[in-house]
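Reopening closed ticket. The problem is back. First fold of the pair:
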Amino acid sequence: MCKTLKWYSPLVRLTSWSPARKGATLTIVLSPLLLPLFLLHLASFGAAGQAKAPQASSPNLRNCLDGLRSCDITELSARELEAVAASSRRRNVDRCLAGTTGCDPTRLDPAGLAQALRNASRRNFDTCRELSSRCNPLTLEPEQSKEVVRTFERRNVERCLNGNADCDPTRISSKTDLEAIRKAALRRNLSRCMGGSTQCDPLSLSAQEQQAVAKESARRNREDCMNGSGSCNPLALNDAEKSQMGRELRARNLQSCLARSASCDPSLLTAPEMAQVAAARPRGRKK
């Protein structure tokens, strides 16, 4: 049995309807005016029918997405489990790329594993260039090894120039660097000698430097003697300096006596100075 139904409209035309045993066939012809609207409706219907990613609508799902221990996977749906697994994979990739603890390289795909290895090689290269004890020289490329050796030699030269205790002069082969290090050591020794340091090595001084050091030592001793310092060596003073030191000593003693200080030495006072000290003492009230 076949029936044909025709219906005319300026927008829609139903051309045929043929029921069959297994179903029915319905043919609709749209007017060109409604075709764009019909296609737009179909597109929006298809987009609405697509599966949406699960949102963290519950605290448990949020904990699972963040990888917290308080996550209870038994309360998750199938879609939520897929989202949690994807979040876990992303966190593992980030940890492996950054070289942090918790990385599981067995969960990486070939591309991610290759990138993680490149990042690890670059971090180790930077660590070796910093001369850190965490450096693994066995994983360096040949060019990286050469660069690390050059960095070590350059920093060793700098340490030797500065007189550091960890300087290794046996690793220096350049005659220019060795000469620069020798001159730097001589300058440091001259500075110590000029400052009166006990670490001064007078045997390393030239004749001109010895004269300069002796002159500076005499000047410091003269100042110490004039100021009454305990480090004064009066035997190193000449007659004029000894006379001046005596005058400075008496002047300081007079001031101590006038101030009634315990450091006053009356034996150093002259007769006029004794009278001056006596006049400066406060007199008692008359009864």
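Second fold of the pair, where the issue appears:
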Amino acid sequence: MSTRKKNKPNTAVEKHFDQDRELALAQLFSRNIGQDIFLLISGFPFMIIGQIAAVHGDFLHVLVETSNSTEVEGETIRIHIADIFVFFIENEHPEE
């Protein structure tokens, strides 16, 4: 598990790392639109299983099938990529 703090980056290197990480994840999620995904995120509802619906900038849109909160099931929710701690994409499409 990452020990990196969620605070604003203190150095140019940390800021660059965050931007590179978000860009790489946005590209990966874009290549896998329509695939099933499992997510653990920092904020409520914490755990999501669903399908990648879209990627807009640094936001992932997921059609929620199952969650620890029934209120979001069947809804498409928007998740900031920086808030994603763990994910698994079923049948992931690797880099082209």
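Update: turned out to be a display glitch only; the data is intact. Helices lie at 12-31. The two ends are 28 Å apart (CA to CA). Please close again.
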